[in-house]
Structure formats: C-alpha cells, structure tokens
Write a structure and sequence with these properties.
Blueprint (H helix, E strand, L loop, with lengths): L2 H19 L3 E4 L4 H13 L8 E4 L6 H13 L4 E4 L2 H5 L11 H18 L4 E4 L6 E4 L7 E3 L16 E4 L27 E4 L7 H11 L14 E2 L12 E2 L5 H10 L12 H5 L5 H5 L4
Parallel strand pairs: 1-2, 1-6, 2-3, 6-8
Antiparallel strand pairs: 3-4, 4-5, 7-8, 9-10
C-alpha cells in the first residue's frame, strides 16, 4: 500500500468505528475540499451509500456558489442534508458584516452557537426534501452526540492537539488537557452519558495528501479553488466577508499539487486568508474550546 492507500484505509476504519459506536451520529460538511474528501470516503466506507446525516451550518455569508454546490451534490448523492442557522443573530444584525460584532464574536454566534444548538435540537433544522428539492423547516429533533469533522492536524495549531475521538462536555466545550491517549490504533469510543465526541478521520492527512487524493479519485471539488484567469484562487473557504484569495495561477488539481510540491506556500499558513484567525492571535484555540469546528 502506498501512503494514500494507508490514509484512506485508516480514515475508512475510523468512519466505520464511529458508525458502530455512536447511535446519534452526524457528519459536518463545510463544502470545502477536506470535508468533501471526508464525504467521499464515507461513500466508499458504506459502498456508495452515506447512512450518516450531513450537517451544514449556514452563516448566510457564504459564497453563493458554495450553497449551489452543496444542494446539487446533496440531491445527486441522495444525502440526508441538514442545515442549521442562528436566526436571532442574523435578524438582529449582530454580525461582523453588519458592523455590530468583531470577527470572533461573529464566528461564535453564527458558527459555534448555531452548531451547538442545531446539534442539540434546541433550534430549528432545515431538512432537504428530495422530492421538491427544497428545505423543510423542522422544529427540534434528536440530539447528535457524535460529530464527524474534516479537521486536519497540519491545518492550524489547535487542531494538532486533537484526537481521532475527541470528547467535549455537554456544552460542546473542549478541555485540551483532558484527552484520551490513542496508541497502536486503540481508540476510546465509550464515554460517559452526556459527552459529545468529535471524530476526526482526516487528522493525519496533509494539504498535499488531500489534493493528491482528489486527483486520484477524481473527486468533484468546488471550482473556487481554481484560478479563472485572474491569477487568484481560494486556498481555504469560509464566509466571503472574512476569506481572501491567494495569488496563484493554478487552474487544475494537477497544478495545485505541483504548486504545493514546489514549496511556494511552505511558509504561508493554509488559513492565512481567514481573517478571524488573525483576530484570534494567529490561532483558533479560543474559538475551538467553545465548540467551533
């Protein structure tokens, strides 16, 4: 087995362990390359069918192409798609784009709080209706306690402190110093009632691994990652008000791989275009402790 085959096998094993161990399981889909690779792996793990519901937290400030891409593939791949949102913060314009919150406060409200209350079932969920192609508003619902996330250890400092199976308390808060050891593929999946567990099948993948796998599997990635003749593309996707493009003429997966292999971005953080990271002192640990993805 080569490196990609080993990473694929490990990730599929983690996905199947999660499905075996957690009844109330959901997978987050941010529409970015990592979580889309994770979704592809889930399709392989379960033979073309994804038995785990997908959840997207919609801040309402995403690039419109991301929402179009989400809905197109949710219908095509017959995904059980759930969307959550912080309606109150948006209605009251308590956001950074409206000038009434810092970037960090905005992320806490539109992402962390929305995720926490959508997972618990306290806030409404929008469920994709495959017959109409629209989303039906549903009040409440079963609480999810196992959450599969496409985080990678090399992407950002706080993520390197994660485990494959990383417990949170009942409020989704993360105690970085209280994480179970994971040795020789022995994973703790039995946690006390009320514990929320984040599951990270891509933890050992690198940015280069992700793109090499996309090329090998011919995964249909959103085209925001590619240059369209302006010498710019996105390297990491988020809200359009807080995400900047990078200078790059790569217009294909092969070109991105060559760019990464050349070392062009070796001293530039993958999330360097995400402005909230800079406001948080160069890292996301404070946000992640409070439940951020």
């Amino acid at each position: 087995m080569d490196q990609l085959e080993q990473l694929e096998a490990q990730s599929i094993y983690i996905l199947r362990e999660a499905y075996r161990s957690f009844k109330q399981l959901v997978m987050l889909w941010s529409i970015g390359k990592d979580s889309t690779v994770l979704l592809w792996l889930a399709r392989k793990a379960f033979f073309g069918h994804v038995p785990i519901p997908l959840m997207h937290i919609d801040t309402s400030f995403k690039v419109p192409a991301m929402i179009e891409y989400r809905d197109r593939f949710a219908l095509q791949w017959k995904l059980n798609m759930i969307v959550g949102q912080n309606e109150v913060a948006l209605k009251n314009k308590q956001t950074f784009p409206d000038g009434n919150a810092t970037r960090i406060e905005c992320c806490q409200a539109l992402k962390s709080e929305a995720l926490k209350h959508t997972l618990s079932g306290e806030w409404p969920r929008w469920i994709l209706n495959h017959d109409t192609g629209n989303y039906d508003r549903v009040e409440g619902g079963e609480a999810f306690t196992g959450v599969i996330v496409g985080a990678r250890a090399d992407e950002e400092g706080s993520r390197s402190k994660e485990r494959y199976f990383s417990p949170r308390d009942q409020h989704n808060e993360w105690d970085v110093g209280d994480q179970p050891p994971e040795l020789w593929n022995q994973f703790k999946t039995d946690f006390a009632p009320g514990t929320h567990v984040r599951i990270h099948p891509l933890l050992d993948w690198t940015e280069l691994n992700i793109w090499e796998y996309i090329e090998r599997e011919n995964i249909p990635i959103i085209d925001l990652y590619f240059d369209k003749g302006e010498g710019k593309r996105y390297r990491s996707l988020g809200c359009q008000t807080c995400t900047s493009s990078v200078c790059s003429s790569s217009s294909s997966v092969t070109a991105i791989i060559e760019e990464l292999q050349s070392g062009k971005f070796s001293n530039i953080a993958e999330r360097s275009g995400r402005e909230q990271d800079k406001e948080d002192g160069g890292g996301l640990e404070s946000l992640r402790k409070g439940g951020y993805m």
